[in-house]
Amino acid sequence: MIKDDANLSIGQLHQRAGARDAAEAYLGTSLTQLREMDMRFWAARAAEGLMGLGDLIVVARYNVPLYEYLKQEFAGESVTVILDRRQGERRQRDEGPRAEERRRADRRRHAETDEALRTRGFVVIAGS
Fold it and tell me: Are 10 and 26 in contact, with CB atoms under 8 Å apart?
């Protein structure tokens, strides 16, 4: 086993154990390294692992090569790959009785997504 394949194995173990964030981090690192080494078979295994984590993959706008790779890898699959093009929040303000509570929860969720986009270059979002 090569050293970079260890990230794939550890990611798969985290995925089986239900540690979603750790699995995403290791599988993402594995995918990046294996793609750089042009190890297509193993890169595809890492991509499949990511696909098992959710049905939407958002790729940071600075990471266009990864976006193009995942778009091609998941063509015909039930996973949607999009390039993050957000410039800022553009929502109408909700003024209902639980609006502030929802906004707080959305800010936490968006902060986690934004952090993953900054550090990993992508985030996998599970369906609801």
Answer: yes
Helix count (H) and strand count (E) of the chain?
5, 3
Task: Report the distance separating Cα 69 and Cα 43, nearest Å.
Answer: 10
Q: How far apart are CA 7 and CA 12, in angstroms?
A: 8
| Domain boundary assignment for the chain | 3-125
pTM: 0.72
C-alpha span between 125 and 40 (Å, rounded): 24
pLDDT tens per residue, range 78-111: 889 999 987 654 445 556 666 666 555 555 567 8
- Phi, psi dihedrals of residue 82, rounded to the nearest 5°: -130, 155
Strands (E) across the chain are located at 56-59, 80-83, 122-125
